[in-house]
């Protein structure tokens, strides 16, 4: 049922829920006396509680438990959690196990980015931000751009099939564990995956070609969608290259100047703090030395490409170089997250082939076994949406006594709030609402591809009813979506 | 040769919600050694848009699921078809009608489709086994599915004769 929002204050617009994102959120826009947006807040409205209810569980359960945080990016949690368990066990896993974990993560990157670009964001880009909301979805895209819609389906299918071939199922595969993975790769599966990587590469290439050719159409959105200076955080390898599995934390500012570099991920708490606000269940991480909220930073594809000196695969290197030419210093517009995602898919498909052709990939020594040998373990990896941190403490029996999860999307919380405010100020006229204005406010959130399910829970239909009321409670204007 | 796609879906950690995947698992074992691969069996937690590509390669589709709306243990079979009024725009929650709509829109296909459900008695979280009621209905669900599959295979072979 559509939800009617009548505010006691007439100077507030509420967008509830925000649509075509992963998770459940609402946006509140505060208006000044002239009816223009003066402030905005992005509220994450549900509470998950993983950090609390994992206490008392054996640490060996944590990969499977935390994977249930999300159905879109469970592999990310499996990976960060398994790495934290490796740390607790004090093991250095085999090279083959690292390759296999990396392989699944690259497949996950492919399918997750495909979901974000094709299913959640392409309807706006292809059909227009002001188009009929009834048709402004992937099926609307399918009727007008069937090839692109099918490409999106196939790209996601490929990523999921690789995950399933490695881990036995597409969602919550119980394959990554502390000490490595629980099954080696067979030659038969390796041979099946190779042409899939080629096919995914071709899809990503032609999609990126279309996107670059369309950038001119998106000039206003590029200019206004969360386009502001900020820090950028992510992981790089020891040579400063693009990295998703294991590396070092790097933080740069908007000019491209490196602020923190080659930080061991286990030392994350030295540079990152977490704040809370009363209007949201999602925490607000910040860069400690800059304080809160000045220490705002962004993570995810845009950040990773900004901080990396190079990608490390042929095609992705070329595309990254072209991407960095968009702007001197860091690329600042959050609209370019879409561009960055497509480059990362190209990188992932190229790297998948490299991994599959590695001479050690079929080795059967994929799991180290040990009990808990430390009382504290930290695992950090790059999820599709950004840096993901799992930090556990256990007692001498191996039971979790404390758990801290810093979810990728959480890092972007401050930036999302600021982005909503910027877009709302530019597009929303409080005296006269139309649906396209509000869709743009939602669209800036979609740039970040938030996985609010990782911090919240979301299910269900997405009705929308916005009402603008005067001090007497009279409805001045409203927009509805069933 | 007529190809039948079997999709059993449900949450294996929610008691009777697992009846669809469990039925699919049994069918997978029954048809494991088929030479002509006229039956393809998939087991999923939920229906997702990517299954539209699998449906596009099939002539007939059978969905297996639990139902929270029918009586516990009650088995219902009904024909299903593409329905644009279903939750078709949701990318992580679809029903069979919505998924068939995706397949029609994207691939222009409209296979014959049926849905067999077993009424669930319990959907409690964290329960990894069926209730006795659902367990008793599982055999009948598999038999119904096999009958429908074999009828389609027979009709398909007659058409090609």
How would you characterize this protein structure?
- Chain A is of the alpha+beta class and 482 residues long.
- Chain A is 41% helix and 18% strand.
- In chain A, strands 8-7-6-11 form a four-stranded mixed beta sheet. Chain A has a three-stranded antiparallel beta sheet with strand order 1-2-3, with helices on one face.
- In chain A, a hairpin with a 2-residue loop joins strand 4 (176-177) and strand 5.
- Chain A starts with 11 loop residues before the first strand and ends with a strand.
- Chain B has a five-stranded mixed beta sheet with strand order 2-1-3-5-4, with helices on one face.
- Chain B is globular and about 40 Å long.
- Chain B is 36% helix and 20% strand.
- In chain B, helix 1 links the parallel strand 1 and strand 2.
- Chain A binds chain B through residues 22, 71-72, 115, 119-120, 137-139, 142-143, 146, 149-150, 153-154, 156-157, 160, 170-172, 459-462, and chain B through 44-46, 49-50, 52-53, 87-93, 101-102, 105-107.
Features:
heterodimer; A: 482 residues; alpha+beta; 4-stranded mixed sheet; 3-stranded antiparallel sheet; disordered N terminus; B: 161 residues; 5-stranded mixed sheet; 4 helices; globular
> What ranges of chain B have pLDDT less than 50 throughout 5 or more consecutive residues?
none
Radius of gyration of chain A: 22 Å
Assign an overall shape of chain B.
globular
Helix run count of chain B? 4
**Separation of the first and last Cα atoms of chain B:** 10 Å
Q: What structural class should be given to the helix and strand makeup of chain B? A: alpha/beta
Strand order of the largest sheet of chain A: 8-7-6-11
Report the sheet-strand fraction of chain A: 15-25%
Question: Mean of the pLDDT scores of chain B?
Answer: 89
Oligomer: heterodimer
The chain-level mean pLDDT of chain A equals: 88
Query: Could you estimate the helical fraction of the residues of chain A in percent?
Result: 40-55%
* Cα-to-Cα separation, first versus last residue of chain A: 7 Å
């Amino acid at each position: 049922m559509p939800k009617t929002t009548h505010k006691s204050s007439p100077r507030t617009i509420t967008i509830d829920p925000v649509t075509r994102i992963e998770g459940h959120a609402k946006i509140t826009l505060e208006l000044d006396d002239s009816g223009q947006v003066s402030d905005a807040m992005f509220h994450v409205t549900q509470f998950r509680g993983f950090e609390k209810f994992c206490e008392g569980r054996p640490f060996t359960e944590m990969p499977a438990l935390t994977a249930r945080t999300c159905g879109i990016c469970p592999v990310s949690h499996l990976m960060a959690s398994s790495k934290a368990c490796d740390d607790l066990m004090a093991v250095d896993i085999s090279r083959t196990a690292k390759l296999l974990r990396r392989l699944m993560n690259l497949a996950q990157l492919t399918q997750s980015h495909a979901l974000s670009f094709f299913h959640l964001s392409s309807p706006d880009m292809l059909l227009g931000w002001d188009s009929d909301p009834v048709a402004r979805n992937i099926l609307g895209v399918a009727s007008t751009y069937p090839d692109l819609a099918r490409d999106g389906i196939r790209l996601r299918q490929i990523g999921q099939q690789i995950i399933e071939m490695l881990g036995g199922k597409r969602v919550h595969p119980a394959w990554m564990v502390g000490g490595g993975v629980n099954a080696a790769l067979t030659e038969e599966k390796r041979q099946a995956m190779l042409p899939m990587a080629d096919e995914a590469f071709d899809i990503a290439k032609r999609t990126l070609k279309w996107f670059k050719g369309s950038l001119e159409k998106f000039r206003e959105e590029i200019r206004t969608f969360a386009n502001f200076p900020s820090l950028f955080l992510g992981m790089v390898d020891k040579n400063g290259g693009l990295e998703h599995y294991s590396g070092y934390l790097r933080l740069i500012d908007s000019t491209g100047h490196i602020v923190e570099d080659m930080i061991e991920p286990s030392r994350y708490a030295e540079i990152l703090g977490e704040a809370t606000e009363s209007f949201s269940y999602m925490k607000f991480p910040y860069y400690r030395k800059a304080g809160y909220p000045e220490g705002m930073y962004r993570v995810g594809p845009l950040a990773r490409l900004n901080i990396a000196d190079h990608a490390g695969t042929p095609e992705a290197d070329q595309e990254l170089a072209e991407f960095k030419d968009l702007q001197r210093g860091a690329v600042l517009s959050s609209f370019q997250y879409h561009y960055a995602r497509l480059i990362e898919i190209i990188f992932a498909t190229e790297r998948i082939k490299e991994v599959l052709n590695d001479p050690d990939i079929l080795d059967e020594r994929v799991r180290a076994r040990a009990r808990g040998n430390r009382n504290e373990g930290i695992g950090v990896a790059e999820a599709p949406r950004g840096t993901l941190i799992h930090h556990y403490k256990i007692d001498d029996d191996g039971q979790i006594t404390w758990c801290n999860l810093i979810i990728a999307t959480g890092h972007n919380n401050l930036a999302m709030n600021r982005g909503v405010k910027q877009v709302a100020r530019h597009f929303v006229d409080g005296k006269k609402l139309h649906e396209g204005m509000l869709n743009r406010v939602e669209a800036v959130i979609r740039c970040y591809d938030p996985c609010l399910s990782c911090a919240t829970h979301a299910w269900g239909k997405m009705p929308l009813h916005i009402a603008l009321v005067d001090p007497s409670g009279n409805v001045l204007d409203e927009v509805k979506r069933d | 040769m007529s190809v039948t796609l079997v999709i059993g879906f449900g949450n294996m950690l929610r008691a009777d919600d697992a009846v669809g995947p469990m039925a699919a698992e049994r069918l997978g074992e029954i048809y494991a050694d088929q030479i002509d691969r006229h039956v393809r069996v998939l087991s999923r937690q939920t229906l997702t848009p990517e299954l539209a590509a699998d449906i596009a390669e099939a002539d007939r589709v059978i969905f297996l699921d639990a139902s929270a709306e029918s009586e516990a243990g009650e088995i219902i079979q009904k024909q299903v078809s593409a329905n644009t009024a279903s939750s078709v725009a949701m990318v992580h929650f679809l029903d069979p009608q919505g998924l068939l709509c995706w397949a029609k829109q994207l691939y222009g296909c409209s296979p014959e489709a049926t849905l067999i459900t077993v009424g669930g008695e319990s959907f409690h979280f964290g329960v990894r086994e069926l209730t006795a009621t659902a367990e008793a209905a599982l055999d009948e669900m598999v038999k119904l599915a096999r009958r429908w599959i074999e009828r389609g295979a027979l009709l398909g072979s007659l058409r090609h004769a």
